[in-house]
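Structure in, sequence out. Go:
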C-alpha cells in the first residue's frame, strides 16, 4: 500500500514538472525569523553559584530541559528526585572537576558573543519556514556537556553543546577525536548541524528494511535541503568535506558508482555495510582508502540533485513520504556521471 502511494505520488510529481511545479525559493527571504540563543550554560552557572535572584524562575523556564541535562546528558545520579536540581549536589560535583572547569572556561571565552550563529540560524529558519510551512520552530538553547552529545533535541527544544565547537586546533580535542573528526568542531558548523538535526527529527524514515539506496537518497534529500537553507555554502561546506575531498569525488564519480553496482551493494539492507557508506570514518572502506568518509551521502546528494532537476517539487511533500530510493533513482536517470 505504501509502495503504491509513493508511486502515485511520483507520477503526480512528474506531471507537475510538465506544468511547472513550485520553484525553489530564491536566495532572498521576505520575512526573517529572529533567533536568539538562550544561554542556559550561563544561567546554570548563576544558579549553581547562588548568584541568581530568582531560582524559581530559572527552574520553571528550563523545566523541560533541566532534567534532560542533569540525568540524560551529564548522567548525574538521582538518589533523591530533588537532589541534583535543587540542592545542586550533582551539578556542583560535575563542574568542580578540573577538566570540566577548564573546558567551561574555554567555551565561555570562545562564545562571549554569538551574533554570527544567531544570524546564520535566523536566515536558515526563515528559509525553513518557507520550504516547510507546517514545521515548528523550536527554542534554541546552549549548554556545556563535557563533550557528550553535540546537539540535543526534544519536541520543543534544540540545545547546542558549545564545547563541541571550539575549533579544530583546540588542544583539548587532540587526544579525544580522530583527525578526520576535527574539521566538524568549528563554530561555523553550528547553524548547519542544528538545521540538519531538525530535519532528521521532523522527517524521520520509519521503514526498518531500508536498502543502502533508500538511505543514500534520504541523506541526499537532507543535504539538498540544507543547500536551500544555506545557499551561500557549497556542498563541501555542508558535508564537512575539504576541497580535496570534493575534487576526489568529482574525479572518481563514475568509478564510485560503478563499484557500488558491481559489488551489488545498492539494495543491501545489511546495517554494517550501510554504516561503512554513511557513518563517520576516515574513508569509505568499500570504495577506496583514498576516498573521504560517508561517500554514500555524497552519491545520494548527486542522485537527488539530478532528480530535482527533472522534478523541482516541494521538499516538504517529498520528505513526508517514505523514501523509495529505486523510484527516485529511476526518475533521476543518474548513471554515475557528473
Amino acid at each position: 500500500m505504501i509502495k503504491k502511494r509513493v508511486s502515485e505520488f511520483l507520477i503526480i510529481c512528474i506531471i507537475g514538472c510538465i506544468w511547472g511545479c513550485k520553484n525553489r525559493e530564491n536566495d532572498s527571504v521576505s520575512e526573517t525569523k529572529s533567533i536568539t540563543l538562550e544561554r542556559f550554560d550561563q544561567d546554570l552557572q548563576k544558579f549553581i553559584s547562588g548568584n541568581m535572584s530568582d531560582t524559581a524562575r530559572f527552574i520553571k523556564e528550563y523545566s523541560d530541559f533541566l532534567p534532560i541535562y542533569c540525568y540524560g546528558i551529564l548522567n548525574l545520579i538521582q538518589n533523591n528526585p530533588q537532589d541534583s536540581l535543587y540542592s545542586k549536589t550533582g551539578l556542583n560535583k560535575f563542574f568542580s572537576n578540573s577538566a570540566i572547569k577548564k573546558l567551561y572556561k574555554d567555551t565561555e571565552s570562545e562564545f562571549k558573543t554569538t551574533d554570527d550563529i544567531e544570524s546564520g540560524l535566523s536566515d536558515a529558519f526563515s528559509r525553513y519556514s518557507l520550504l516547510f510551512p507546517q514545521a515548528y520552530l523550536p527554542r534554541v538553547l546552549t549548554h556545556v556537556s563535557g563533550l557528550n552529545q553535540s546537539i540535543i533535541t526534544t519536541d520543543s527544544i534544540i540545545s547546542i553543546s558549545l564545547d563541541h565547537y571550539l575549533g579544530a586546533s583546540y588542544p583539548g580535542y587532540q587526544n579525544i577525536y580522530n583527525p578526520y573528526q576535527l574539521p566538524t568542531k568549528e563554530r561555523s558548523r553550528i547553524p548547519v548541524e542544528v538545521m540538519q538535526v531538525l530535519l532528521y527529527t521532523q522527517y524521520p524514515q520509519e521503514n526498518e528494511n531500508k536498502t543502502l539506496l533508500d538511505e543514500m537518497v534520504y541523506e541526499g534529500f537532507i543535504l539538498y535541503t540544507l543547500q536551500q537553507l544555506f545557499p551561500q555554502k557549497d556542498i563541501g561546506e555542508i558535508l564537512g568535506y575539504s576541497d580535496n575531498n570534493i575534487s576526489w569525488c568529482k574525479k572518481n564519480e563514475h568509478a564510485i558508482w560503478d563499484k557500488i553496482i558491481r559489488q551489488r551493494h545498492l539494495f543491501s539492507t545489511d546495517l554494517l555495510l550501510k554504516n561503512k557508506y554513511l557513518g563517520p570514518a576516515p574513508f569509505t572502506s568499500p570504495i577506496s582508502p583514498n576516498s573521504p568518509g560517508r561517500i554514500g551521502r555524497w552519491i545520494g546528494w548527486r542522485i537527488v540533485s539530478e532528480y530535482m532537476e527533472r522534478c523541482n517539487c516541494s521538499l516538504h511533500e517529498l520528505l513526508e513520504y517514505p523514501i523509495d530510493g529505486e523510484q527516485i533513482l529511476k526518475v533521476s536517470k543518474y548513471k554515475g556521471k557528473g
